[in-house]
Amino acid sequence: MKVRPVRSGRKPHYPTAEEFGRKQEEIRIMPLRWVKNSAAAAAFGMLLVMAACERQETQETLPEEGGNCAPVFVHGEGYGWLGCVAVTAPLFFSEEEALAIILDEARTYGELDFQAEETSVIDGILFPAEDGGKTEVSLALDGKSPDGNITFEFVSLNDLEKWGQITRDETGGASYEIQETAKILQSQLGQREDSVKTGVFYDPYDYEASFTLEEQISQENPQDDFEELQRKKEEAVIALSEENLRAQVRDFIDWLKGQGVI
């Protein structure tokens, strides 16, 4: 067999080296000690390219608002990644922690007495499956108003596990597309014909911002030992996530006011 040069071909669907090189903002999420290590920097860059390809392929174009379901109000990336060079586990909220924040913000900002009581079960919710098809799930939303005319769901890491929405690669790494999963759920809840107003919140853990915060804290506290640095980093990341979740709740309450519900 003779080897012949390829003189022309289709543009690949993944980013080229030149295109990726222009994305200098990605360097901001790489720890400085990795930037100085050529091997670590190269590995991190390749993983970012792979993650970008996968996310580009799986994202769907979804309506911002449908029927009586509010749009997903985006505050925080709602994305986590664990595996290979990303060895620090994302700091996601437990459902109990998130619900406490949601109820508190609804009470302080909107004077709404939401209850963390599940609604009746909703059948026929479809999520993407690994084989390219769809996975059908039934779910009860996480909370409601006392009269049941307002309901809400918080999309958590636990939900992704139950609904089969954690993407795993050949190396054992996992990506958590919480915001995108929330948008898929919202688009289907918006197709219901009842009069109940629904909000969909999501865990706002911000993968990129967490790296920035951690590097900033390391630089500002060189005297601290490892455990103290970790404590300060976790506190900063959790505080950012809490504020982003509260912002989602405030936007939902403002949407309810615009709908004439409250």
List the helices and strands and how they pair.
Layout (H helix, E strand, L loop, with lengths): L16 H5 L10 H4 L2 H21 L20 E4 L12 H16 L10 E8 L5 E7 L2 E2 L5 E6 L1 H7 L2 E3 L5 E4 H12 L7 E6 L4 H14 L5 H33 L4
Helix pairs in contact: 4-8, 7-8
Keywords, please?
single chain; 262 residues; alpha+beta; three-stranded mixed sheet; 8 helices; 15% strand
Unreliable runs, pLDDT <50, ≥5 residues? 1-36, 54-63
Work out the radius of gyration.
21 Å
What series of H and E elements makes up the topology? HHHEHEEEEHEEHEHH
Structural class: alpha+beta
Helix content: 40-55%
| Helical run tally | 8
Head-to-tail CA distance between termini? 75 Å
Shape: globular
What this model shows, in words?
- By secondary structure, the chain is α+β, with helices and mostly antiparallel strands.
- It has eight helices and eight strands.
- It is globular.
- The relative contact order is 0.18.
Quick take:
The protein has 262 residues and is an alpha+beta fold. It has helices at residues 17-21, 32-35, 38-58, 95-110, 157-163, 178-189, 207-220, 226-258, and strands at 79-82, 121-128, 134-140, 143-144, 150-155, 166-168, 174-177, 197-202.
